[in-house]
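Students often ask why we bother encoding 3D structure as a string. The short answer is that it lets us treat folding as translation between two languages. Here is a chain of 664 residues written in the first language.
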Amino acid sequence: MRLSLALALYIFAGTASAATQADLNAALDHKQDALDEFKLSLETAAVDINTGTFDNSTCEIYSSCSAELSEPFCHFNYGNSRGCGCNAGRTIDTRNSVIKTSPNLGASDYSVKRTACEANHINANLTSLYDSMIELGDAKWLFYGSKDGVLINFPGIVWDEDIAEDTCGTTYDARIRPWHMTGATGPKNVVLILDTSGSMSKYNRIDMLKQAAKAVLDATTFADFIGIVEFNSYASTYADLTTLARAMPEFKEILSGFIDGFSPSESTNMLDGFKRAFKLVDDSNEKNYGAGCHTTYVLVTDGEWTGDGNPTSTITDRQITHSDEHFFVVGLGDGVDAQGLKDLSCKTGAIYTQANDGDESGLQRSMISFYKYYALFKTLNKVEGYSWSEPYESIPSIWGAMTTVVAPVYDKTREPWHMMGVAGVDATVCDLLQNKVPDPTGSTRTQRGCTCRETYTYHGKMLSGCTTTDWPVPWCATSGICGSCNTDSVEGGCWDDCEPEGKEGVLQEELLARSTGWCEPASLDACALEALRLSMGEYKPESKCGSSESKFDYASCTDANIANYSWAIDGPQDPDSTTYNLKSVQSSLQGTLYDMNADECECDDTMQPTCACAAMEEINKRSKTCSGGDCSPLNMGLFFGILIPCLLCCFGFIWKIICRKKRV
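And here it is in the second language, the structure alphabet:
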């Protein structure tokens, strides 16, 4: 037996190490093919619903916040729960979707019903697609987030132990999840310009600013580059960084901590804030370190600038030579200088939103303006294709880190198109690392072929090799004139990102390459901007600018012009004052098939992929010990924490799967 096991381990290890780039491409392409079928079925549903060929009179479907599913089944591939005896899996519905919504979304009954009708329309396609994928052991979640944040989830699942409609996942909004932002917006540079002046101490506005800023951070992905400028009497950046940085999950955690440390004081030199932001972007472009795509500036302020702090003319002067830069203004507080900020927005083509004191829904609307703006870019350009998300923990977290291939979904029944939402298909990171990712070639020490200095100083601190000090990915000071240069804080003035190490580095590079393919210089004309303002302002006429500015001829926009863009943004509108409720049973889950309490159950290594238990164990261990932002799910610790246990458990898989099928 020992000899057989040793021989099997040897054969398996040899097979695993033989993975090639073709294997990885095939695995990712397979998911993209599944997504293509998913997306096509949703777009066909839109046609049939619009033309009346699909009966949408009832469109009954269960809410995910319900104590009941249509066809419940204990499925061992979705972890163990107490409702299934801790030995037969988790209760899901592999024949029906569920819908996740929340009163906080502000989605109309018509919008929720239309999404439910789409789910019913594609149900047979999803079931067939799922069945074909489960045969390969790689069927996980398939999901779709609408432009109003409503979620279709397949297979159906009960969202949480707490299923009360007013508390069940009320903060979840598909539109501001990284996978949805990836599909709707594409790669971009994002610079937050944050007002920490003394006036921000009024009515707890500084806490609202922190919440808004972190919401923007959460919505960025690893295809984006980010920078933070804090300003009061003068402006500064995090750790005095001179370039943007890639929005990796662990670095965003560090920046969130930086934001939490803000304390309001001094005056409001908004002009200096914008000048510092522009320099940050220019220095990044000079060093070829950024998304190579659109740049977004997000100003969060109470609008009470002092002295010569009005940045309007500085922005409009810059726009003469920087056409692919876009501006959002978030005004905080009841006493905000709304007119001043609106004037700034109209003159610069910015989108202005306001959140009153204590108005969390206003902050959410501000985040949605960000989504709608870039979604309109893609819509008008008819951008198709796929992107991949960074590894993340799904809800519920069952298999460890996941990555999702996503694509925009359009209603193409008229011109211009309308982006209905974003569809996604999951892949399990540990399975890709174990079976599909080739070994790295690693011919150079840095991304751009530079040589790392053996030792060097950074801000006076002695370092060696690759470091993550103040940066989202490992970097080093480089020898000679190589990489990003003219950086005074680094000895020798030049530095570069180190080449990713191990299989996780290979996977990261491939996912990034598939996430940054689309980027066309884009701008929205005056009428598109007015339509966005109306959409964000709930179609109140005062939301528009109306009068023309030197760069934006708003006065020429006819009602027909704006209505055309409004269709592209918001799509079909309710013709009949629709009332609609999802199916939902409100009762306790305790003692039922849906009883969760998964923490009481052991992970079963027959679950596919067989590496999932080790992946979850590693994540749970890291959640207890990680500090300083070093909590990325995709690293060497995760890789080795998965691979070795998987090798040890996989050979009992076939026998245990046979036994399991006999039990269920």
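Translate back mentally: The CA atoms of residues 24 and 432 lie 7 Å apart. Keep this in mind for the problem set.
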